[in-house]
Structures are given as structure tokens and as C-alpha cells.
Amino acid sequence: MLNIAVLGSGTGSNFRAILSAIQQGKIPRARICLVVSNNSNAGILEIARANSLPVIHLSQKPFESEEDFADALLSTFAAHGVMFVVLAGYMKRLHPRVIAAYRNRILNIHPALLPAYGGQGMYGMRVHQAVIAAGEKYSGATVHLVDEEYDHGPIVLQQRVDVSPDDTPESLAAKVLAVEHALFPEAIRLFAEGKVVVDETSREVVRSAL
Ligand code: GRF
To answer: Could you give the C-alpha distances from 123 to 80, 90, 129, 163, 178, in angstroms and in order?
Structure first.
């Protein structure tokens, strides 16, 4: 059984989709063992509490350094037996120490077709504004492994959506989010079933049996 920690800072709609998939038996080999947020008001914490899942509010503020915060996160993970980490709208960059400890075991979702429209500063509505401003015909969602660079690690799954001429950033965001809600649980299922292998030379996902 894959013990997963979900980290988020906001609404938590992706977390809700993942949790529903698990509750419906669609990811039989995974369970959520911890939900962490840096924001005490995050919707993700409310959803977790309503489902009686272990919840921790962990903000960097009381810690003297980023390293101390990273160590606190790692001890919390260890205490809960975390084997795999899912970033579901987590707005804080993970310290390289955390990334190293969970190499190839941290997933993120990004609301565009990476490597396009990713990187520092490309988050939330800014992504969709940029896609529309560029006149793109397609956008989509990407699930990828997390490495030390923003939105850069090996891509696990991507799904495209059409951008219509009358789309606004808000309408495009809604279309992409709907796709995310199916794509993220599916990516987690692949990991839970051991169907994802990362080629360490190319840093690409080389086997993703769908
Ligand atoms: C999503 O758009 C996701 O792509 C991005 O953060 C947002 C999280 O939304 N990484 P939610 O909190 O899951 O509703």
C-alpha cells in the first residue's frame, strides 16, 4: 500500500478528486496518510478534516531557516510513514533536501502543457492569461515528477483541451481543472501499481503502461 501525503495551499479540488478516486476503489493500492498545508485556512484542510484524515498545518514562519522547515516536514513525513508526496496546489517551493529525500516520489500538477507556460511566476490565472494572449489553440494539464527546478521534472501524463476563440482565462481555467481532476488520480494509480519507471540518464518516464 502506497502511503501518500498530500500538500496544498488552496481550495483542494484536486485533493477532493484524488480522495474520491481512492474512496471509490479506483486506486486500490494507495491511501492518504497525511494532509499538510502551509495555510491554516486552506480548503484542503477542511476536506481532510471532514474525512477524518490526519492533518497538519505547517508554515515556515516559526522556523529560523528554510532548512529547519524542511527538516520539520521530513520528520512529519517519517512520523506518518509517508512514502509518496502529492502537491495539489501547494504554493511553496519544496526545499532541495525534501526533493532529494523523495527523489522520483513527488508529483505535481500544472495547468498547462509543460514545458510550455511553466516556470517561476507561471501559476494560477497567469498561466491561462498567457495562453490566451499567445492565441494558442490548445492548452491542457500536466502531471510531472518534481525536481529542483520549477515545473521541470519528468512528465508522467498530459491531457490537451481546446482553447476556443471566445474562451476567457476563467473559462479556460475551468476546462483545464476538469481535466486535472481525472488526470491526477490516474497518475497516482500508475505509481501505486508500480507502472512508472524513470530513466535516470534521460530523466524521462520510460514506461507508463496505461
Ligand atoms: C490547480 O490549477 C493546479 O494545476 C495548480 O494549483 C491548482 C490547485 O487547485 N497546481 P485546487 O486547490 O486543487 O483546486
So the answer is: 30, 11, 10, 18, 17
Of 177, 183, 188, which is best to mutate to test ligand 1, by the most ligand atoms within 8 angstroms of its C-beta? 177
Q: Which CATH superfamily groups domain 109-144+154-210?
A: Formyl transferase, N-terminal domain (3.40.50.170)
pTM above 0.90, yes or no: yes
pLDDT in tens, 52-110: 999 999 999 999 999 999 999 999 999 999 999 999 999 999 999 999 999 999 999 99
Give the up-direction half-sphere exposure of residue 125: CA atoms within 13 A in the CB hemisphere.
Answer: 4
185 lines ligand 1 (CB under 6 A): no
CA of 14 to the centre of ligand 1 (A): 6
